[in-house]
Amino acid sequence: MEFLWEGLMSITWQQVVMYAVGILLIYLAIKKDYEPALLLPMGFGAILVNLPLSGVINQEMEGIGVVNGIIEWLFNVGIDASEALPILLFIGIGAMIDFGPLLSMPSMFLFGAGAQFGIFFAICVAVLMGFDLKDAASIGIIGAADGPTSILVSQVLHSNYVGPIAVAAYSYMALVPIVQPVAIRLVTTKKERRIHMDYTPGTVSQKMKIAFPILVTFLVGLVSPQSVALVGFLMFGNLLRECGVLGNLSDTAQNVLANLITLLLGITISFSMRAEAFVNFDTLLIMVLGLVAFIFDSIGGVLLAKFLNLFRKKKINPMIGAAGISAFPMSARVVQKMAMEEDPSNVILMHAIGANVSGQIASVIAGGLVISLVAAYL
Amino acid sequence: MGDFIIALEIMVKGMVGIFVVIGILTLLVMLMGKISGPKKKDDEQA
To answer: Which are the contacts of A157, defined by CB distance < 8 A and separation ≥ 6?
Structure first.
């Protein structure tokens, strides 16, 4: 009857740690509502892949040979071979985004760019901490505040830390309401946070909304070809939304497709959370570096706004800069909440949303640029 | 130290790259707004 105890007897302490991590992720998802659509499947998947001799990953069985496991197969097909899952998710994300507020206030575009600073700052810090360039770049991209982009870049660069990077990316996205206010307060004064901004949007025609995704795809594709998969699918989803004749497809992309891919992505990425790859000191460092990336994203955006204020008569509330990260719409909400805490009559939500959707475009551009630049140095 | 210098180069090139692309996008969107919109309202938010 020894075979009944074989699994129990072969549990390692690292696997026990992963059970705790899995349960923690499930707890955060259910109790704290932190990105539950991703953290719950990841947490449960972390338990599945770390059960001894687990049937969800490939196992060599005596007398039979290799028996394929479903999660390993999903990972190989959906992420390792083609990055299909994160890329397909972008169709759904694109279909969900209304670029109207951004198109009506084009100057908000700049903050999306400024708030990517944390990515590159974190890459530098990661290199100083001893990570090689491809791993450092993969860690830095946590600062894109965009889970699929983080997974895709770390996978394309063959990072050894896909699992911890995915966990960090989604965890900090969920923690934006806690992380961003601290970072913003570090670099703004009360007076600056009270700045009011007029909302006088320009008109956005339907033609413009249709032309925009095509224009972005051309421009970004020509400048940063590595971004085409990301930007192209994001903009394809947005074109479905804005074209006006594919309502059913747009709805499907926003709901069915996005939900289905999210469900599979979470459990699939858990393959990279096997104890031997996850339980080490580097994972802790990656969590710290992810936090650094998020903080310096916010600081970068705020400092850009303060810099622009040097040349403007009508000042920008510098908190708008921090909304340029890709975490939509949490970041815009955080900025609006902070503005109202300082002055209950201060409404800067539409500006913040404009910067926030710009961050979605800028983060995928950043992802493509990081891949191109790092590949050139490897 | 070599990797750190490379990381700094990536930082400079990456941020410049993002600002160039976003800058061009901003200008194109402003241009589209002028061409396709009726009489423009001021899009300067502040």
So the answer is: A134, A135, A137, A138, A371, A374, A375
Does the interface predicted TM-score (ipTM) exceed 0.90?
A: no
Residue B13 lies in a domain: yes
**A139 Cβ contact list (under 8 Å, min separation 6):** A122, A123, A126, A131, A159, A161, A165, A286, A289, A290, A293
The domain of B28 spans 8-34
SS3 A241: helix
Domain assignment present for B42: no
> Phi-psi category of A178—alpha, beta or left, where left has phi over 0 and alpha has psi -120 to 50?
alpha
Per the listing, tokens 């700049």 go with A110
Joined together, the tokens standing for residue A309 give 């204020």
- Tell me how far apart the alpha carbons of residues A25 and A164 are, in angstroms, rounded to a whole number: 13
Q: Is A145 left (phi over 0), alpha (psi -120 to 50) or beta?
A: left
User: Quick one: pLDDT band at residue A5, thresholds 50, 70, 90?
Assistant: confident
Chain B contacts of A216, Cβ < 8 Å?
25
Residue A230: predicted pLDDT: 87
For position B38, what pLDDT does the model report? 61
A316 with B45: Cβ contact below 8 A = yes
Q: Which of A132, A199, A374 sits opposite B45 (nearest CB)?
A: A199
User: What digits encode the pLDDT tens for the residues B3-23?
Assistant: 899 999 999 999 999 999 999
State the count of interchain CB pairs (< 8 A) between A and B: 144
A342-366 residue pLDDT tens:
999 999 999 999 999 999 999 999 9
> In which domain, by residue range, is A306 found?
2-58+66-377
Looking at the partner chain, which of B11, B36, B46 has a beta carbon nearest the beta carbon of A123?
A: B11
Best B22, B28, B32, B39 residue to mutate vs chain A (most A CBs within 10 Å): B22
The whole-angstrom separation of Cα A40 and Cα A195 is 40
A60 bridge partner residues: A66
Which structure tokens are listed for A187?
């670099």
Chain B residues lying within 8 Å of A124, measured CB to CB? 4, 7-8, 11
Nearest chain A residue to B8 by CA: give it: A124
Pairwise CA distance, residues A317 & A197, whole Å: 7
Amino acid present at A149: T
3-class secondary-structure state, position A59: strand
Count the domains in chain B.
1
Please tell me the distance from the alpha carbon of residue A260 to that of residue A236, in angstroms, as a whole number: 18
* Residue A205 identity: S
Q: Give the count of domains, chain A.
A: 1
